[in-house]
Amino acid sequence: MEIEGCIGVATISFPASVMWFLTFGNSAKYTGTLRAFSLPKLFIMGTRDNFTSTKAFEQMTSTMSELKHVDIIDNMDHFWFDRKMW
Predict the structure, then answer these.
(1) CB-neighbour burial class of residue 52 (10 A; exposed 0-12, middle 13-18, buried 19+)
(2) What's the pLDDT band for 85 if we cut at 50, 70, 90?
(3) What 3-state DSSP class applies to 59?
């Protein structure tokens, strides 16, 4: 939100279920910033994510303001191993 000219934000494999651990208990600071972000948001994760369940991911993204797009990709893990990029 503080970057001049920013047109949106994209998250890939957002660690919703373990964010509390990664931020030393301050996960609300980061998810709150995403909630307040008024520009478009893109959330992508795989159904086999090692750190976040599909349910937790959907719960987290459901609290985000509109101007969002959520994609859940079948059979992809957190690190997107074996994914052909080109």
Answers:
(1) buried
(2) low
(3) helix
